[in-house]
Amino acid sequence: MAVSDEGRRSEAEAMCPHRLVLEHVTSRWGVLVLIRLLERPYRFSELRRAIGRVSEKMLTQTLQTLERDGLVHRDAKPVIPPRVDYSLTGLGREAAEQVRELARWTDRRMADVLAARQAYDEARTP
Amino acid sequence: MAVSDEGRRSEAEAMCPHRLVLEHVTSRWGVLVLIRLLERPYRFSELRRAIGRVSEKMLTQTLQTLERDGLVHRDAKPVIPPRVDYSLTGLGREAAEQVRELARWTDRRMADVLAARQAYDEARTP
DNA sequence: CGGTATCCAAAAGGATACTG
DNA sequence: CAGTATCCTTTTGGATACCG
Fold first, then answer.
1. CA of B67 to C1' of C12 (A)
2. Does a cis peptide bond (omega within 30 degrees of 0) precede residue B82?
3. A64-CA/C3-C1' distance, Å
């Protein structure tokens, strides 16, 4: 996710900027967030529960990165208790759809991958 | 790339196996390797030079992971000095084409992302 | 509720030296 | 040439505590 604890930004951002967007989109939690939001908007905690086993910190970081890249829209309602809704922008929807296709492909081809792994492993542990 | 210095495999592989394939395919070096091999087969060092600034270790790990997943074919010629050619399998070509599409999308939309980032940054450093 | 701040453990990744 | 092995640094990510 290319965001350290200190929140620096300029170090890695300088070189090859579009590689970074790709990394944000295909990052561990980025993928899951985008695919979820493709379905409907989610609140923060709702998203956290839906994804499961993601820490608050990582979800926050992921959402902030995606928001900054213009892929996710953050709608913070000024109520108490706070309520924040996340949804995809047009740009985010384009990205999410491609990511979902890739995820579906891995689903469809999983059997082939598993077979390949087994063959690979057996070939070197005789 | 989910392969530590010790080369363990079973720890993470147990849960959600298709997420791992996705991570291999979209990993930092995985993306670059797949896109290069889409063009033509490459030798190890040739690939290393083509990608640039990738360590031997990471290239080796990436290639081994992709080979094990059945995406890359490794052809080691028994000659001296050694010569090893890497190419895509049918499965690998399918994956690589989707990854390339995603990479092209980030290229096409880069201007939008950059604009979004600038707006985001300006909004919070007044 | 929806975060931020801090600290710490684990994993990724690079540099170097060595080998068949 | 195409790796493997080792060591070390950097980054990632989780746990916890606290705040508006």
1. 20
2. no
3. 12
The band of B67, judged by pLDDT with boundaries at 50, 70 and 90, is very high
| pLDDT the model gives residue B76 | 96
Domains of chain A: 3-123 (1.10.10.10)
Report if pTM > 0.85: yes
Q: Distance, in angstroms, between A111 CA and closest chain B CA?
A: 10
User: Which amino acid would we find at residue A15?
Assistant: M
Cβ proximity of A93 and A38 under 8 Å: yes
| Owner of token pair 């900027």 | A17
| Element (DSSP H or E) covering residue B6 | none
Q: Exposed/middle/buried for B25, CB within 10 Å: 0-12, 13-18, 19+? A: buried
> Could you give the C-alpha distances from B115 to A69, A109, B23, B118, in angstroms and in order?
8, 37, 28, 5
B63 touches strand D (CB under 7 A): yes
Q: B8: which chain A residues are within 8 Å (Cβ-Cβ)?
A: none
Confidence category of residue A12, pLDDT binned at 50, 70, 90:
low
Q: Which residues contact A109 (CB under 8 A, 6 or more apart)?
A: B21, B91, B94, B95
- Provide the token pair at B69: 């997943």
The residue type of A70 is G
Q: Which residues contact B119 (CB under 8 A, 6 or more apart)?
A: A70
The rounded distance, in Å, linking the Cα atoms of A16 and B70 is 29
Q: Is B18 left (phi over 0), alpha (psi -120 to 50) or beta?
A: alpha
The answer to whether residues B115 and A70 touch, using CB atoms and an 8 Å cutoff, is yes
